[in-house]
Amino acid sequence: MAPLLNPYLNFDGNARQAMEYYEEVFGGELSLHTFGEAGGAGEEHADKIMHGMLTATADGFTIMGSDMPPGMEHTSGNNFAVSLSGEEEGTLRGYWDKLSDGGQVSVPLERQMWGDIFGMCTDRFGIPWMVNISTRQG
Asked: I need a labelling partner for 89 at 20 to 30 A (CA). Which of 38, 83, 117, 136 fits?
């Protein structure tokens, strides 16, 4: 699968409603995962969306989104990120190296609890990027 470039939207506690709405608008398949499923988020955030993904729409759109993580404030400057994802580790690491050069890394590109290699950075122009290298077999 070739790398994907798609929007990643952040919400102030209403990600579930927004992602379900986008599913109604665009069709496709929606998967939602909560902070509670990942553990350690606390009861007040347990049902909030840690990661949502709408795929397989009729026009081939992919939209990702989540509620802001516990401890992060939702503002107009952090309500989106550009997400790069796929299985081509060399290609995606190359993008990461270039995007993070001269920028600010908020999550180092490394293996995460869900098994993939993931990182977040803001490039030198202030654009937030998320890179996810899928390591799942099958």
From this structure: 38
